[in-house]
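Q: Sequence in, structure out?
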Amino acid sequence: MKSWKKLGCLGVLVMIAAVCCAGPAVLAAAVVKNRGGKAVGGSVSAAAAGIPERMMAAYLTGAAQIGAHVPACKGMRWQVLAGIARVESDHASGRLVGVSGDIQPLIIGLRLDGSGAGGNTTAIRDTDQGRWDNDTEYERAVGPFQFLPETFRAYGKDGNGDGVISPHNADDAAASAAIYLCGKGRNLGDREQLRKAIHTYNLSWAYVDDVISGIDRYDTLGRTPSLPSGNIGAVVQAALAQQGLPYSWGGGGPSGPTTGICCSPGGQDGRTVTGFDCSGLTQFAYAKAGINLPRTAAMQAGVGRRIPASAGYNALRPGDLIFYGYSPTADSTIHHVGIYLGDGKMINAPRPGKPVRIDPVTAMPDYAGGARLL
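A: Exactly. Output:
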């Protein structure tokens, strides 16, 4: 920032030590209120917002994860993050944002050496040994949200669950910006608290006005559905809203996240973690459409119309269950399940230590087809 001053996917495979679970065109609903308190917005396509799809996905994910980091925060939504990034980097304009969220070439701001360039008259000495800004003498703002390295070290989070925290990754930067703006638990649905939060990001009221103008535009966009309608949309939205929640071995179910059981082949004691395993997540999402799925991934393969692995990924449609198993033709060997989003992506609870997240369908090697319930 330019701040210059109970049993889930275990199933029958526990006996052979199987674990449950080892960009994006679908955008979640984002309902907010305008100044008069009327609900506006709803599902909106990246194209309608004028935002690259991969950056929109980062904003959605960053906003969805805030509950795991700042539970008391209210009103965080993708529009707030998009408003900041629009001013800071024009949504990483001119850069390539990869599937993982990594941005190339890097976005690095002016040298903050007190020379007056860019309005900076106070020198800020290097704090990261040039790790993120390639400058070992003075600081430079970095990434699509233009964090100072020192600030990012304090607030940086692993937004995409890859084990690396970087301001040059769209998911990490968006999640970190959400945490910074939320503070100890602001209500960003309150306009004055929102303005104050933005002011902490950059101590300029002109900056605040500029960001707010973008947020207002995003808030008042017409509805442009980018999710399937009806029950399929309800299933997908329910799953997407769980992004950032932890994996819990045997955890989760139709009513939501729960503690799980002991113990995964890797040693996780689900009794100490509140969250979802892969089939617990699918149970929860499909309950929103009135469908009660069996508890294990292998058993879920027997529900609905089976889509064989031989038909390939192109046979899948958004909302379909997607399976992985040791033998693509034997449902009894299925050890993982997710929900297909389209564009080669799925939402899933991958494995212990990884949160609910969007992954490419190729993230696991043993695709075993899908099932269509709606």
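Residues 158 and 165 are 5 Å apart (CA to CA).
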